[in-house]
Write a structure and sequence with these properties.
Elements: H1 3-42, H2 61-72, H3 74-99, H4 103-109, E1 112-114, H5 122-137, E2 144-148, E3 156-159, E4 167-171, H6 172-177, H7 180-195, H8 198-236, H9 241-292, H10 295-307, H11 342-349, H12 362-370, E5 433-437, E6 443-447, H13 450-456, H14 460-470, H15 481-485, H16 490-505, H17 509-524, H18 531-547, H19 561-577, H20 583-597, H21 612-622, H22 629-642, H23 649-661, H24 666-675
Parallel strand pairs: 2-4
Antiparallel strand pairs: 1-2, 3-4, 5-6
Helix pairs in contact: 1-3, 1-8, 1-9, 3-8, 5-7, 7-9, 7-10, 8-9, 10-11, 14-16, 16-18, 17-18, 19-20, 19-21, 19-22, 20-22, 22-23
């Protein structure tokens, strides 16, 4: 399954949703004006909304409508139209602004409690490990995890605008009723929503429906204004009975009409939401199987829900508003059901399903799991391709703390111009085993327990320490991380950094700002920039800055290959220059990249000097490319790397780094390309 095509499909559905929303708004405005004119035509409310009864005999329907509108007054129609539009736009924008702060806003609105990375509760530990595994398998930063403590139904959701601010939340019922395999299926389903681009679409649906809902509220306000006006006139008296009641009655009637129209708008909006959501759930189920390679996991979770008394119900009053985000229907409704029928989903996953549901076995299996490593085999997840960092980079002393750290290879880096493609290996970083002392004092080799290291970074101090150790800078909190990291390959190091991000988010804003500034100061200390420094800074800066409100997720900007050509040329030039000084090899690499990416590139840019600033800016701009462009970009770089039939360690490092910067789940991309 191609996740990038799925993202583009979700984006197209978002555009259709916006179009339908605009149509709904226009229809609401027309109906509101029509009703108010009808009220004024058939009633007499004094001077407030009186309309001259004009002769309509012999006029066509269109001419009669225009004449009635003219009698009512175009200025009044303009005021009504502007008022309705402003109410909807302001409400939608306000909701979007609040939700764009991160997925934690949605989780907290549903009573969610964040699960601390260092939690000792066995069920929470199992949940954290499952989320961690899925994130590392997708080469993503590990998202924050929430539990809906008061919800006994079996359900879950992912929320956020981008992968950087995503959270995964599960109900207490899911945590208690699902075993490890079933929980993996549910979490994998939610991760597919992140990778498929569904989260952003879900937030847009939530914001637009909130805008339509405010029409109801506006109608209620008018009703209360009318009732209040009538009471005030009655209390103070009036010279004219018609004046006393006319304005109040008109406001009440107008408010009631707008309220009814708002209900109609909400009805059709809910139908649209349900229709869009149902189709995305089938895709997410299939993606979950791709992640876990185990259809019985997610199918088992669905079968447990089918046999569980409370099903997947969520009792929070906000459940209806965000029902399309959940794993299963959060409330019972056939017309507004946001998910396909449970049996249909199970049958798609298990064609030979007998129709029997399952009882929960979670409690019975939890005891057995506590005696085992919850994520066994994780140490072998990236056991091949030991990659280390080599070299230093340019010595520009200025690093803007709000911008990416700039990086540029120098002739002293081990990636020297003209030296061919360096293996980029530090002897100490290429081992997958660690030396330990045996009882007789001799050095032996022992397999590294990655799971224990992952548990260590669940502590906030350890999480900060590993980032300092990763860039080889002294720090009081680095502890023994420098020695530990020396025995790991690059992929394992990146896994630990991703797993440390939730712990950094547990800091308060002041503590995080202090860590961030200390990290920047450490990078500045020797006036050089290493690839490791650049990568580590970008890895925590993106998700953490968004979490603490210091930045917003970058808006997508580039829709076509032509629009990214200049930025890609800069990145490709530096990418190839780091491996060769042979201009003919450069041209061969560019041609290979051109064929793979579909971009028309300049083959004569080898002599161009690519500064650290231009390279960094180009990398950051490419992060803003639309989903279907990103695999083309990576595919072009991979083709350039393979052009000389030697995909060396340096090129592997840079591919891994750029994938991390661009929020690309590289393994999923490679599988998608193979499956295409």
């Amino acid at each position: 399954m191609n996740f990038y095509k799925a993202q583009e499909s979700a984006r197209k559905q978002s555009r259709r949703l916006v179009a339908l929303f605009c149509v709904a708004v226009v229809v609401l405005i027309l109906l509101t004006n029509t009703l108010l004119i009808a009220i004024a035509w058939f009633s007499d409310f004094g001077n407030v909304a009186s309309i001259n009864k004009v002769n309509l005999e012999g006029l066509s329907p269109l001419a009669a409508t225009l004449k009635i509108a003219d009698s009512f007054g175009w200025a009044k129609i303009a005021v009504i139209t502007a008022t309705i539009s402003i109410v909807i736009i302001v409400a939608t924008w306000s909701k979007w602004s609040s939700l764009s702060s991160g997925g934690h806003v949605v989780a907290e609105s549903l009573g969610g409690r964040i699960v601390r990375p260092d939690s000792k509760d066995p069920r929470e530990r199992r949940l954290l490990n499952v989320v961690e595994e899925m994130a590392l398998a997708a080469s993503m930063a590990v998202p924050s995890v929430f539990v809906l403590d008061n919800e006994q139904g079996v359900n879950a959701f992912a929320a956020g605008v981008s992968a950087d601010d995503a959270v995964v939340a599960v109900s207490q019922g899911a945590m208690y009723q699902l075993n490890r395999e079933q929980l993996q299926g549910v979490v994998a389903h939610e991760f597919s929503h992140i990778l498929n681009g569904d989260m952003r679409m879900n937030i847009r649906i939530l914001a637009t429906l909130h805008g339509l809902m405010m029409i109801n509220e506006f109608g209620r306000v008018l009703i209360h204004m009318g009732m209040g006006s009538g009471r005030r006139r009655h209390y103070f008296g009036s010279s004219s009975r018609n004046d006393k009641n006319g304005g109040a009655i008109f406001l009440i009637a107008a408010g009631a009409a707008i309220w009814v129209l708002g209900c109609a708008g909400q009805f059709f909006g809910a139908v649209i939401k349900a229709a869009v959501s149902r189709q995305r759930e089938y895709l997410a189920d299939a993606s979950a199987v791709q992640f876990t390679r185990n259809p019985t996991g997610i199918a088992g979770a669905l079968r447990v829900i089918g046999g569980y008394g409370l099903k997947s119900r969520i009792d929070n009053p906000h459940a209806y508003e965000v029902g399309h985000m959940f794993f299963c229907n959060a409330f019972h409704s056939k017309v507004f059901a946001t998910h396909p029928p449970l049996d249909d989903r199970i049958e798609r996953l298990m064609p030979n399903w007998s129709g029997q549901y399952l009882d929960s076995t979670a409690d019975a299996e939890l005891g057995d799991e506590l005696g085992e490593e919850l994520s066994g085999g994780l140490s072998e997840l990236h056991a091949s391709g030991a990659m280390g960092f080599a070299g230093t980079v340019s010595t520009d002393p200025d690093i803007d703390k709000d911008k990416p750290i700039e990086f540029e290879a120098s002739s002293e880096s081990g990636l020297a111009q003209g030296s061919g493609c360096s293996d980029g290996l530090d002897p100490a970083s290429s081992a997958d085993v660690k030396s330990v002392s045996s009882a007789d004092g001799k050095q032996t080799k022992a397999n590294i327990n990655i799971q224990l290291l992952l548990q260590r970074v669940h502590n906030a101090d350890e999480a900060q320490g590993i980032f300092f150790a990763f860039i080889d800078r002294p720090s009081v909190i680095a502890g023994d991380w420098p020695e530990v990291l020396s025995a790991l390959n690059l992929s394992q190091k990146l896994d630990l950094l991703r797993a440390a991000i939730p712990s950094l988010k547990q800091l308060d804003k002041t503590a995080y700002a202090a860590f961030r500034q200390s990290f920047i100061d450490a990078v500045r200390s020797d006036g050089k920039r290493s690839i490791a420094e650049w990568l580590a800074y970008e890895m925590f800066r993106n998700p953490c800055d968004i979490h603490f409100g210091l930045a917003k997720a970058p808006k997508l900007k580039y829709k076509t290959l032509k629009s990214v050509k200049d930025h890609y040329q800069v990145v490709l030039t530096k990418f190839v220059q780091m491996g060769t000084q042979d201009e003919s090899k450069y041209q061969t690499a560019v041609r290979a990249s051109q064929d793979a990416s579909g971009l028309e590139l300049d083959e004569n840019c080898y002599e161009n000097t690519v500064s650290s600033k231009s390279f960094t800016n180009a990398c950051y701009e490419l992060k803003r490319a639309y989903p279907l462009l990103k695999p083309r970009i990576i595919k072009g770089l991979l083709a350039a790397a393979h052009a000389d039939e030697d995909f060396c360690e340096t090129e592997q490092q840079l591919i891994a780094i750029l994938a991390a910067i661009w929020d690309l789940p590289l393994p999923a991309f490679l599988e998608s390309e193979n499956a295409a």
